[in-house]
Design brief:
Length: about 120
Amino acid sequence: MSSMTDIVFLLLIFFMVTSTLIAPNALKLLLPQSNNQTQAKPLTTISITHDLTYHINNDGNVTQVRFNEIEPFLQRIMGVGEDVYLSLHADKQVPIDEVVKIMNIARRNEYKMILATSPER
């Protein structure tokens, strides 16, 4: 019986240690509200936080980039072509100028842009 409790405690310690190593890749954004939804699936996501930091989510890997690095980064991971969707998650407090800059990058590279919103209440 004592060896069984040792195994249980070792498993408990193992799960406690491994659970602290898992860090979620989520950004806290307050999105504008809307009732519209799209059926398109974006290949990648650009997020702009309220303090104007840019993050690109590529297959679950969130990378913080500077503004001048966004276009080359997108070209490297997405290429250029039709039916390439890009999702933009911009915080409510982000100036519209910053959103338009990202939309211009998408237009230059022929990406289709999806502006992410939260559901209206």
